[in-house]
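Figure S7 source data.
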Amino acid sequence: MSTYPDLHLFINGEWRKTVDDRPVLNPATEKEIGRLPHAEKSDLDDALESAEKGFRVWSKTAPVERANVLLKAAALMRERQEEIATAITAEHGKPLGQARLEVIRGCEFLEWDAGEATRTYGRVIPSAPGVRYVVHHQPIGTVAAFSPWNFPMSQPCRKVAGAIASGCSIILKAAEETPAGALHIARALHDAGLPPGVLSLVFGSPAEISDHLIRQDQVRLVAFTGSTEVGRHLTTLASEHMTPVLMELGGHAPVIVCEDTDIDAAANTGAIRKMRNAGQVCTSPTRFFVHESIFEEYAEKFVRRASATIVGNGLDPGVEMGPLANERRPEALAALVEDARKCGAEVRTGGNRIGSRGYFFEPTVLVNVPDSARVMQEEPFGPLAIINPIASLDDGIARANAVPFGLAAYGFTNRADYADRMAERIEAGNVSINTLEASLPETPFGGVKSSGYGREGGSEGILNYMTVKNISHSLSIT
Ligand code: NAD
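Tokens for the predicted nicotinamide-adenine-dinucleotide complex:
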């Protein structure tokens, strides 16, 4: 079994240590598994300078050559899948099988955007004879990107893929709790021949790094995935410099279960999917609104499957759910459960931290949760499901829309008219019917309302990293 990687910053094509290094913990054991160098201002300034140089080279590199570097890096990451997955499980806690899938998903993001690099077509606009209007897409410049800890590899891959495919340079600050995924991305791209400065990887104090980078004129896009609160702060900062942002923020996904659906299948898939990544997914299904005629049967089956989830160290065979990723999460979840209980919710299963070593939390199902409970508005970001009855589909849609978030939403029905109504009226960037899969590399992913703006993936994703230039060319002087 591979060991955890030696952690570094990656600046100007070189690996770098710093005097200030901090521990990285395994959330299943709370033991130190590595030490992470934290960047100083001078490291950030070096990254900015090398990003400028990298951009000058990379923006002039043919799209097909950019694509080849991305494809080569993805192939290397596929070869290194086991080594990377083991490191992700060690730092994040998720079961090894889920970490392996995450590595593949990260590769797919690189592969998809490699294809998109060669398809950033412009337009020719018909006009008066003798005049041509041509629309070009050009890389926006240096990107400052911030990725979170819930998917240590696939989250940074999304941003790195978009930036590199489009011809940008990118300074990535990945999550300090889970640095190995991003480190492996940098390693693979370096080995694949990415020129120095096109990608820099830094770690440190998130607030200090974002504050310093976003204030620099050469940073032309701020891309962030994380909480709405931090996203709002970074957007405000960027707006002072008129810097555009790409914001993938919180969700609080509703699941509407209609009376005509297959109850067994919907309850089973709901409970399994809820516990994936210990619920630490921005698209995690959380607010289950179930038609009152099937409510009790659905809740019972859901609870049975949820409480049977095998919880343990992600490296152990058969484990379905690991610990939460950091110490903040069990505390936050316990507080939400306690508040819901006080408001009158019924805790059908779970609700407590497991043991005293590691950040384990029980799979938790709350039913009949009143709207006054905090958890009805706040994203739990953990293995917690809410199941409430609804009188009709319209009632379910109204409740689905009754939060400030609009990232992913789900519906279960066999009726075409119900499916259409949900697709039309639910306020979310992604609506899925009869599946709890919200996004793939080839589909545009992002939110509405407080879930942010901009899209990652699909043919839309790469355009965030590009500007539109209109060229007017008159064949004679007018
Ligand atoms: P948090 O709000 O402190 O941090 C969220 C992420 O933003 C982390 O990766 C953190 O390193 C980063 N961050 C924090 N302050 C920053 C700053 N000033 N500049 C740049 N980056 C900064 O909270 P947390 O305890 O890590 O997570 C709590 C909540 O965040 C969760 O409940 C969830 O709602 C949200 N979250 C969402 C996602 C997602 O995929 N959308 C991922 C992780 C966390």
